[in-house]
Amino acid sequence: MGIVALVGGGMLVWMGIDMIRNSTKASLNNAEGAKESKKGPHPVFVGLLASLANPYWTLWWATVGLGYLVMSMRYGAAGIAVFFAGHLTADYAWYVLIALGISRGKRLLKDTSYRLIIRACGLILTGFGGWFLWSARAYIANAGI
Question: Which of 6, 93, 104, 106 has the most CB atoms in a 10 Å sphere around its CB?
Answer without folding.
Answer: 6
